[in-house]
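Comment thread on ticket #2218

A.B. wrote:
> Attaching the input chain for the structure job we discussed in standup.
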Amino acid sequence: MGWKRKYNDLIVKSPTLLRYYASSKGISMSPTIGHHSELPLTTEQVLALTRIVFLDPVDPVPCDLIFIFGGTHPGAWEAGAEAYFNGLGQQIFVVGGIPRNPKAPHVSWTGEDRFVPNCRRIATNLIRLGVPEHVISCDERPLNSYEEAMCLRAFIGTHPEIVSVLFISKGWGIGRQFRTLHHNLPGDIVLVPYPFETNLGEGEAVTRENWADSPQGRAMVIAEYNRILTYGKQGGLTPLASPVVGLEDIRLSHL
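C.D. wrote:
> Ran it. Output below, let me know if you need it in another format.
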């Protein structure tokens, strides 16, 4: 049995078993990766990091499925509803369990919302925005992007009509999410990114155009680049063909 099939079987049975199996294979499901905002970057490095983290802009096209990664930012359901009403997909699959740290969701989450699985909160708001409930499917088991990708793999396995997926994620996470899906889904699945902009705290949104202009943006993008390097080496996503020149070995202790 191949390792991808093994992971698929485990995520269907139990994410807990999946995490145990991943640990036995040396794949960290949530490694701690710090941030760094003072590393000097050349123009070439900024351009390379932008393409890796944010991907190149593409025009969205209609797909068989709209897939929403788990998260607490309102942009997830706002982008999902926008995509649905723009005819980019007529079926929606939302994933995500209760955040690992229920004390630190998006500032819009209050009270009992903090203990609601991500996918349930997203689905509730999709319905509030007018998306029909019957087109939404949820899976509240996964707790990280890798598990979410494996849940999508299992979902596609039971829906053979799905050959294209429009996936929704924060703009500065879209590159990592693409590589996670690309590595773990069947090779014939077409992936179309649909990012939404987010800000850090009360500052302006971190985008492909302005991330290098603020300490927060630089820290976030460099952290994402490190996640891509780390998870690629661990086998959780499609690794970079080659690291950014001059950033081949950013030591985590420096971040």
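A.B. wrote:
> Thanks. Noting for the ticket: The chain has one domain: 41-249.
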